Amino acid sequence: MIERRERKPYWRHTKWQMLASLVPFLTVILVLPLYADRLNSSKFMGFPLGYFLCLHGLVLIAVITVASFVNRQDAIDHWHGAHEDA
């Protein structure tokens, strides 16, 4: 259980951690489709490159973003004494 005086800094760190994880992911989601038409002139494994990156790249970026978020949130939990012993 986290101490009452530690809750505010804990949630502040968690909030900034969430924003730091979402901003790059949302930037890629918004920017990559803008360049998809230009990338479609090249082919990768028989698919237009823009199509390939939009499908597979976004999934890969989502997995990496979630994995890094979990890892950093675990560090925040340990720092503030809110970790769970499993």
Write up this protein.
- With 86 residues, this protein is mainly α.
- The chain has a domain at 22-80.
- It is built from two helices and two strands; from the N terminus they run αββα.
- It has a two-stranded antiparallel ribbon with strand order 1-2.
- Strand 1 (43-44) and strand 2 form a beta hairpin.
- Helix 1 packs antiparallel against helix 2 (49-80).
Separation, N- and C-terminal Cα atoms? 14 Å
Helix fraction?
A: over 70%
SS summary, helix count: 2
- Based on CA atoms alone, the radius of gyration comes out at 18 Å
Overall geometric form: elongated
Task: Return residue spans where pLDDT drops below 50 for at least 5 consecutive residues.
Answer: none
Structural class computed from helices and strand pairing = mainly alpha
Order of helices and strands: HEEH
Mean pLDDT: 86
Multimeric organization: single chain
- Please tally the β strands and state the result: 2
**Largest beta-sheet characterization:** 2 strands, antiparallel
Side by side, the strands of the main sheet go 1-2
Strand content: under 5%
TL;DR of this structure?
The protein has 86 residues and is mostly helical. 79% of the residues lie in helices and 5% in strands.
Architecture blueprint of SSEs:
Elements: H1 4-39, E1 43-44, E2 47-48, H2 49-80
Antiparallel strand pairs: 1-2
Helix pairs in contact: 1-2
